[in-house]
Amino acid sequence: MTRILILLALLPLPVMAADGAPGISAGTYIQATLALLLIVGLLLGATWAARKVSGGRMFGQGNLRVISGVALGPKERIVLVEVADSWLVVGIVPGQIRTLHTLPKGESAPTLESTTPAFGEWLKAIRERKNDAP
Fold first, then answer.
1. Does residue 101 contact residue 89 with C-beta atoms inside 8 Å?
2. φ/ψ (deg, to 5) at 116
3. Where are the domains of the chain?
4. Cα atoms found within 13 Å of the Cα of residue 19, Cβ hemisphere only
5. Low-confidence residues of the chain, pLDDT below 50?
């Protein structure tokens, strides 16, 4: 209740027009503020209810998992998606998603770390070369 009183105190006073006619009344400000608080409360309540119904998980989770992806252009991608016991190679372009290939599920996704050194190792090698130079 004190928060509402503080909000009411911060509202501007009614304005009088030059000809003496009243402007927007304080009741209008109060009504608009209460309507806004009601809408925000409804939105928060809806998100809370959605989380309770879905068991605390976010939407879109299930037995699908994105393993890897490669951008081919500004709007084109190829994505490797794990679905149950198989992997799908999916092509994504604006307005369209197509399955390009189906693979049996692998042990683990290939990573770039195994083929290229970490940035820290690369930087250390560059510093050592610089220090060894005459």
1. yes
2. -120, 145
3. 2-53, 64-104
4. 1
5. 109, 112
User: Which of 65, 111, 69 lies closest to 91 in space, CA to CA?
Assistant: 69
Statement: the pTM of the whole predicted model exceeds 0.70:
no
Strand ordering across the sheet containing 64-71: 64-71, 77-83, 86-93, 96-104
pLDDT digit string (tens) for 20-55?
A: 556 777 888 899 999 999 999 999 999 989 888 866
The pLDDT value recorded for residue 12 is 58
Amino acid (1-letter code) at residue 122: W
Distance CA 80, CA 72 (A): 14
Quickly count helices (H) and strands (E) in the chain.
Answer: 3, 4
pLDDT of residue 132: 75
> Per the structure block, which two tokens stand in for 29?
């400000």
Q: Which residue is listed with tokens 């604006």?
A: 94
Task: Give the DSSP H or E segment for 87.
Answer: strand 86-93
* CA 123 – CA 125 distance, rounded (Å): 5
Question: Are residues 88 and 104 in contact, defined by beta-carbon separation less than 8 angstroms?
Answer: no
